[in-house]
Amino acid sequence: MNVVIFFELDWNDPLFQEKQNEYKEKIDVVRTNLDNRASVISVVLLQNKDSFPTVDDLYSTERDQKANTLCTYFDITKRALCVLPVLPQPDNLHAWIDRLEQTFIEWSQNYYTNEIKRVKQHKETLNKLTHQLLHVRHQFKMGFFGELKQDIPSAVKSYKSAYSYLTDNVRIHDTNILEMKMVAGFLTYKICRISFDLSQPVEAINHFRRHSDIFKSKMGPVELSFEHKAWLSKQFQIFADLFTRCPHAIQTQHPGFYYQEAAYQAMARKQLAHTLCRGIEQSNYDPSEFLKSPEFYGQRPWRQHHQSVEIADAQKEKEGIAALQNVEMYNLAEEYASCKEYEKALKYVVRLLIMDAT
């Protein structure tokens, strides 16, 4: 991580020494807060008095000495110290800003290159049988860093590798199905968005078709099948949104088709929720325990970090599913109310109130 700190300091400032000490303390505070992080601190001096006729203007001997002193005192490299004249505004201010921008880009790309190397080295030590999820995670991180580095081909390659590894190698079962679907959805979004941005709609469509074919039957627990339909609906909707970036790229395809499928899945979700959530048994457990935000996307709040196929606590699992069904009843009530179907909404509200009273 590159951290850039801006200070106002002129080379001929009469309080140069005092400000140097003050800024050193501030840099030390930042450095302490960044402890154990792969970070580089850079300093930009905003010059208020000195004049810089051209971008290539060289420091005088005195300026050069002070710059070296600051770098040593701040414990930064000379390349990590930059100067930006601001007042009075020089005629070539844009040139200075452009040079500063290029410097920042270079620092950032170097940082992300090193991060990719670090992740890749760790990935090579993983056991493909016991570290399957970490393998997917590392590939995703490499793709994300590649995007930030603006190395799009490498980013797409990493995202596709992560997706293929997840669908071909990771063991998917009822206890981790939601987490796997969410990760696959994130990867699909990345792959399709980049493909559309690169004017490669066929690539995006082919990937999404494969994605929907793989996961359309991976429902998970029957009691939460409405959750699966909601996820499918969201997948089609997001892809349709991405497709609108180039709607006329393929004559035989159109975003409207995917919006229509999203609507079908949404209706199926409502029908399943109506069937499954109307017969919930009353219970005296506290549902809030099962509705907390999990640490990782897709994991159940009541069994986070649980990767086993077996359910450790059957009673807690039953209560967790019941809590999710209660939330779905509330969602149905909200949706019916927003459509002014108040009688249908009231049925779910009354049932929730009765359950809460017991």
Task: Describe the overall structure.
The protein has a three-stranded parallel β-sheet, sandwiched between helices. It has 358 residues and is mainly alpha-helical. The protein is 60% helix and 6% strand. Among the domains are: 90 residues, no CATH class; 82 residues, no CATH class.
Question: What would you say about this model in short?
Answer:
It is built from eleven helices and three strands; from the N terminus they run E-H-E-H-E-H-H-H-H-H-H-H-H-H. It is mainly α and 358 residues long. Among the domains are: 2-91, no CATH class; 277-358, no CATH class.
- Give me the secondary-structure category: mainly alpha
Helix and strand run: EHEHEHHHHHHHHH
Q: Numbering strands along the chain, what is their spatial order in the largest sheet?
A: 1-2-3
What low-confidence regions span 5 or more consecutive residues with pLDDT below 50?
Answer: 51-55
Domain Trafficking protein particle complex subunit: 177-325
Protein name: Trafficking protein particle complex subunit 11 domain-containing protein
InterPro entries: TPC11
Q: Tags for this entry?
A:
3-stranded parallel β-sheet, 6% strand, mainly alpha, elongated, 3 strands, single chain, 358 residues
Fold topology:
Blueprint: E1 2-8, H1 16-33, E2 40-47, H2 61-74, E3 81-85, H3 93-123, H4 132-148, H5 152-169, H6 177-197, H7 201-215, H8 225-243, H9 255-276, H10 314-338, H11 342-357
Parallel strand pairs: 1-2, 2-3
Helix pairs in contact: 3-4, 4-5, 5-6, 6-7, 6-8, 7-8, 8-9, 9-10, 10-11
InterPro entries: TPC11 (IPR021773)
Domain Trafficking protein particle complex subunit: 177-325
Organism: Didymodactylos carnosus
